[in-house]
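Standup notes
- DV: blocked on the single-chain target, sequence here:
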Amino acid sequence: MTGVPRDPNRLHLHLQLRALLLPLVFVGLLGRAGPVLAGLEEVIVAAKPSVVAVGTFKETDNPRFGFRGSGFIAGAGNLVVTNAHVLPDVLPAGGSAGTLAVFVPTASSEADKLRRATLVAIDRAHDLALLRVEGPPLPPLTLAADAPAREGMAIAIMGFPIGGALGFTPVTHRGIVASVTAIVLPAAVAGNLNAQAIRQLRSGSFDIYQLDATAYPGNSGGPVLDAETGQVVAVINMVLVRGSKESAITHPSGISYAIPVRFVAELVKDR
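- DV (later): unblocked, structure below
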């Protein structure tokens, strides 16, 4: 009984102190569980105005906006980052043929919600695209430093899973960076080679992030946020390493992949 007071009154006080202190010690051992949750709530509120739906616009279509994927605002507020595969294979030429467009769900007026867009730059090797949107600047997200994300760091993914089927309201899922791993390049078999595979082979392997958060079709191009700071650490991507959209919907693995933000920084630089 070393360290425990023998006096009954002092013993009672000692036990009361232990009861008060043990929960605090337990929380300390768990890390910053409380602050992370509070921080994530703030991150979501701050990031939602910067997350947009990417697609096409044509006056004669019904609906006029054709959803294709997610994206987010960068730069000075007039640039949108998304996946290259989110864009149509043949870009609309404008006029009666339609145009690229982004939908801003949180815009204050209906006139500002639908913005025409043009392609500024594309990085097919990393499946990234940069668009310029018309209208007043939107709040951009901050890109994290070039240093790789840490395995185990808390993240949040934002976007529009399953597209308009769930409505155009940004949806958030949280998880961690489960692994930093080299992308699996396609086997050198003629039947497996396509334009995307050839570009990957030429550029060589590069590290991607494996996340323990489930992304669905529609999430592609959305930001992966540091859950504590709200900075963009990566861009959700399913095409480089996953199968068909149908299998992703019916048999989600709970594992998603994302392109590190350093490739985004290179695309946005000086624009």
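- Follow-up: The domain at 154-268 is CATH 2.40.10.10 (Thrombin, subunit H).
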